[in-house]
Amino acid sequence: MEFLDHLLGLDIERLIAKYGYLAIFINTFIEGETIQIFAGWAAHEGLLSFWLVALSGFAGTVCGDQTYYWIGRRWGRPIMHRFPRLEARCQPAFDFLRKYDNWFILGFRFVYGVRNVAPFACGAAGISVLRFTALNIVAAAIWAVTFTTAGFFFGKAIAGLIAEYGLKVVLPTVIGLVVLAVVIAKWRARKTAQKVVQID
Q1: Residues 13, 17: Cα–Cα separation, whole Å
Q2: CA–CA dist 108, 93 (Å, integer)
Q3: Domain extents for the chain?
Q4: What is the mean pLDDT of each run of 10 residues along the chain (200 residues)?
Q5: Do the beta carbons of residue 96 and residue 127 sit within 8 Å?
Q6: Residues sharing a CB contact under 8 Å with residue 190, sequence separation 6 or more, in sequence order
C-alpha cells in the first residue's frame, strides 16, 4: 500500500477505510465482480472487515438486481421494442429462462455478460415477484461470500508473490491479467449474443 500511496499521492488506506463499503455497495449495484474481489483483498490486508465487505456486496447486488427486475416488469417490453440492441442482448437471458428457469435466476450473476440484463429480462418475462426475490437473495448471498473469499485468498497469494518478487513486478502483472480477463469475457459475451441473434 505504501507504493500506491507514493505513486498516486493519496492516503489509499484512509480512503479505503472511509469510503470502501460505500464504494462496494455502489459498484455491486451496477455490476461489481471486480470490486468485490479487490475488497476481499483489502479485507486480507486488514483495511476492511471481511463480513462487512460481503454484506456490502450482498446489499448492493440485491438492490441493483431488484431495481432492474422492476424496470423490466413495468417497462421491459416497450423499452426493448424501442431499443432493438437491448432486445438482442436480452435474448440469451430469455433462452436460458425458457430452458432452466429457477437455475438461471440462481446462477445468472456468475455468468459474465448476462448478469447486467438478466434481472431486467426476468421482469420482462413475467417471473413472479416472490420467486425472483427469494431466489435472488439466496444467489446474492452465495455470490457475495464466494467473491469476497476469492479476493481474500487472492490477497494471500499476492502477498506471497510480493514478498518474493516485489510490488513493482507483481502489481503490473496482476493489473494486466485482470484487464485481459475482462476483455476476453466481454469478447466471448459479444460473440454469444451475435450467435443468438443470427440463429433467430
Answers
A1: 6
A2: 8
A3: 2-199
A4: 43 66 89 81 86 95 94 85 74 75 83 76 88 94 92 76 60 68 65 50
A5: no
A6: 113
- DSSP string for residues in 117-164: THHHHHHHTT--HHHHHHHHHHHHHHHHHHHHHHHHHHHHHHHHHHHH
Would you call 168 exposed, middle or buried from its count of C-beta atoms within 10 A (0-12, 13-18, 19+)? exposed
CB atoms within 10 A of CB 144: 28
d(CA 132, CA 197): 26
17: helix, coil or strand?
helix
Whether the model clears a pTM of 0.90, i.e. scores above it, the answer is: no
Phi, psi of 117 (to 5 degrees): -100, -15
Alpha-carbon gap, residue 95 to 76, rounded angstroms? 16
**What distance in Å separates the CA atoms of residue 113 and residue 193, rounded to the nearest whole number?**
9
**Cell, residue 73:** 416488469
